[in-house]
């Protein structure tokens, strides 16, 4: 057993072959008999040798990983999306490298630059906060797919839910159930407000003709005082509360209870994303579903296709939403 980190030369010496044969055998390339390949693998496992994929990528000019850039890890929607990206990336022998940006444009820019230095196959960015111009510039030298936005120009591929169709689904449900007023809650304005604003506009249009209010909730702010301003116990004008995502709805439901009201009976709560948390009985949220499997498949395939046409115009994939109705509405 060697005392330092084993190398390909150590494997070659112990297996009785050349270093070049070891490289070919462990990369899975043809030209080595299965008997020799297995002997080399056995020796590598015995001495604890692990391929340096970073060096292999630099030498062979092929990517071994892809970058996944997320705002944070708090939102359960991101959890489901990342799981699907991992599944689809593994089918192409790619390792996803996950990084969070905390909705900071400078950090996001730095993260993407570092991933580029790592020679990733490309980057999947979820709701990025840099300007469209900055993102277009990045896409000129590195395949970039964005989940959660409409086309930004250049060679950026995008995949997103049909926000207008989603808003119409919510509106039809709320009107059918007889809720008379709408309060839309989102995060407070910030660098990523462009995506929040797009959803607000779609909802405002879908609820045309009904009283519609929007409030941006500062991070960590108590929800109950905000709800109290809108007389949620007014039985003659029952209130529907629409949240930007399930994460915010999970704060709204206990706030409704704290006012002595019951979601689904006294007020409606409708959210977006339909994550696994929405289905839990303690929340039972009516929520708009955007298919994370379709989003992840589209994003990974777009990056792989982009390898052969780096300068082509970006493509847009629009995901159809559905509404899962539960007890909160």
From TrEMBL:
Molecular-function annotations in GO: DNA binding
InterPro entries with a match to the protein in the record: HTH_LacI (IPR000843), LacI/GalR-like_sensor (IPR046335), Lambda_DNA-bd_dom_sf (IPR010982), Peripla_BP_I (IPR028082)
Name of this protein: LacI family DNA-binding transcriptional regulator
Top-rank lineage group of the source organism: Bacteria
Keyword Transcription regulation appears in the UniProt entry: yes
Keywords: DNA-binding, Transcription, Transcription regulation
Keyword Transcription carried by entry: yes
Domain HTH lacI-type: from-to ranges: 6-60
